[in-house]
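Instructor's aside before we start: the two examples that follow are unrelated to each other. I chose them only because their records fit on one page, so don't look for a connection. First example below.
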Amino acid sequence: MTATALTRSAAEDLLYVETQLIDEDKLEQWLQLFTTDGIYWVPSDEHADPEYETSIIHDDTLQREKRIFQLRNKHLAQDPRSRTVHLVSNVQVFPGDKPDEVIIHCNQLITEMRPGDHQYLQSGLGQPRTFAARCKYIVRQTNSEWRIALKQVLLINRDLPLENISFIL
């Protein structure tokens, strides 16, 4: 199957929908944006093979579902739950390696805030944090819809200590 051309505008729309679902805590709908074999990957080394080397996050479908289940069921690392705002820019679209896939590159700026104060004895409460990342998406056309086969979030500070990234980047 040959993919219908994905314009930059349509790619931006897909990324805007994805990040809006995350920011509005519609995480079950976010899960539906992925292909059945989709991967959500936050590498510690962009050149490493995630099957053999440690990643910050490397979630297949089951792990993504488990992550959302834990977030929904008062996972201690996310009580209270983080609020996020994603900004997407510099979107570029390239042909994929397969006829039904397209590669999207973009930059993202993610601001995260956990409400509360330090009296909960959890670090980071009430302190906004900002994460900057270069992102790569591989999207696949499935039944005339574009689905995420890979979301790779390459944090610019990936080699520094990262506290409590238990929310969705």
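Example two begins here.
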Amino acid sequence: IWMNGGMIIERFHEFIVYILDNLDVNFPQCSFVFTIDNLNSHKNALILNEITNHGHHYVFHAPYWPVDGIIEYIFNTIQTRLKIFFNRLSTMDDLQNCINNIVGGFGSF
């Protein structure tokens, strides 16, 4: 978990290499398809080449639209509710507790 800064290409590359190395060890003769969103760091040639050089494939999600699926509903709800508590959040613990409360309130689907 990175506590400072957003997802940059170098961090995402490190993450993808970790996953690919794990797949190479645990599933040596298998090919996987990665579904990737349209974030610039995810669409970077370094990332895409890493995936294909390991013998896997990738496919991009359709552009974001909040009504497309349940995960979009969840992310939108978390974001909307976090905005309500924004001025009360001053530490990572505050943020984590707030997210836990929001997600805990979803119930089941």
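The two ends are 28 Å apart (CA to CA).
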